[in-house]
Amino acid sequence: MKIAAVRENAFAMPLNNPAYPRPPYKFYNREFVVINYRTDPETLRAVVPEPLEVIGDTVAYEFIRMPDSTGFGDYTETGQVIPVRFTTPSGKVQEGSYVHAMYLDDNSPIAGGREIWGFPKKLATPKLSHEQETLVGTLHYGSVLCVRATMGYKHRELPLEPLAKAMAKPAFVLKVIPDVDGSPRICELVRYYLEDVTLKGAWAGPAALQLFEHAMCDVARLPVREVTSASHYIADLTLGLGEVVFDYLQHD
Questions:
Q1: pLDDT in tens, 47-65
Q2: How far apart are CA 105 and CA 128, in angstroms?
Q3: Alpha-carbon distance 107 to 105, whole Å?
Q4: DSSP state of 219
Q5: DSSP secondary structure letter of residue 56
Q6: What domain of life does the native source organism fall in (predicted)?
Q7: Tell me: the pLDDT tens digits for 217-248?
Q8: Residues labelled catalytic
Q9: How far is Cα 226 from Cα 36, in angstroms, rounded to an integer?
């Protein structure tokens, strides 16, 4: 293969049989269960990287079923998202969220998510199911139960406009890729948006959340002090590509 052909085709690994196709990535009937809870604010500040600033003392624990996504197929994802603010170089303050942890059961979005955006994805076994009048979410890392979440099914319909505004806010991830000698080659704060969002329904209900300690799946590092709210919603959307907003290798 000629050098020019390598350059032209080198968008993902392996070169001749990539783990995922080129973007964009569209998701249909994406089902979210999001449980918001209060945690220890000092611990939050310890895990969120500057220049992001933590807002309050809350965490959103998410279960997401993706039954139909272009390139990535059918899979389930779960993890923790933290409300933050970011001040741009021009002085504009943006409120959004920092993606702290993600666990999923499909290789293509693990590889693509880590390599393109820098999503903190790990292989595990999350499940989201409907059990009579209850939504049930679990996360196993290997054989060990790390998360158990339950929510009452569609107790109260939610207005879509506030949720649409929340989904329009940016999200941030810390992209880290090592060099061949083990030193950091890329260490960047990346911002991205959800695009072309079509909300199909949203509901609230009572919820409970339990996090269990695990050495390699440390969701319990952000302990549950109090569940404050829970939402269940379904949407079509496109996962927007990212942009670098801060380069840690260029700043002290």
A1: 999 999 999 999 999 999 9
A2: 12
A3: 7
A4: G
A5: T
A6: Bacteria
A7: 999 999 999 999 999 999 999 999 999 999 99
A8: 121
A9: 9
